[in-house]
Backbone:
């Protein structure tokens, strides 16, 4: 059965965006990141990280450094009740024209194929409009912007919130509303 997923951008959503983060000792989680991720899991969402990492393509760090950092993030998330289902990254430069770099939907579509994801039942949580543009192109049902960069471009199934706990609150309210509507429809039929 296809699963619903919370796609999480990394820098600016999970951790403080210091620019080309690649060393474990420089990792600093954003307030409420771990708690918010655990709440999303409690709501029935598997977690998939999808992140542009052009620092690899620029030669600032290598894939091994990225993997080491993501292993640490994965361990921290698991310890806090928010295991990561998978991590996808694009190592290419913006001008490479690849299909995986957000706002292209490649990473999300690859994840959907490999992880049996129901895109329409899933949500993308990012700090840039390119995250939500990738989600729209992939057919992801909802989008959440962390912060206010690009807020004027939000669509009807999208919102902006300050952090992952607020994102989980919004998803809980939306899911509760949908469940309530389905229950009401079922009662009308009976």
Residues:
């Amino acid at each position: 059965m296809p699963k619903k997923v919370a796609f999480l951008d990394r820098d600016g959503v999970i951790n403080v965006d210091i620019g080309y983060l690649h060393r474990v000792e420089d990792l600093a989680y954003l307030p409420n990141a771990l708690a918010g991720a655990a709440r999303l899991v409690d709501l029935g969402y598997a977690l998939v990280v999808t992140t542009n990492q052009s620092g690899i393509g620029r030669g600032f760090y290598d894939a091994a450094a990225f993997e080491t950092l993501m292993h640490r993030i994965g361990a921290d998330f698991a310890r806090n009740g928010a295991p990561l289902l998978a991590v996808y990254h694009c190592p290419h430069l913006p001008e490479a024209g690849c299909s995986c770099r957000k706002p292209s939907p490649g990473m999300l579509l690859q994840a959907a194929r490999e992880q049996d994801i129901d895109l329409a039942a899933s949500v993308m949580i990012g700090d840039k409009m390119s995250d939500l543009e990738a989600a729209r192109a992939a057919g992801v049902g909802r989008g959440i912007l962390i912060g206010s960069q690009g807020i004027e471009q939000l669509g009807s199934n999208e919102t902006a919130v300050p952090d992952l706990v607020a994102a989980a609150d919004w998803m809980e309210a939306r899911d509760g509303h949908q469940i309530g509507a389905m229950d009401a429809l079922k009662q009308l039929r009976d």
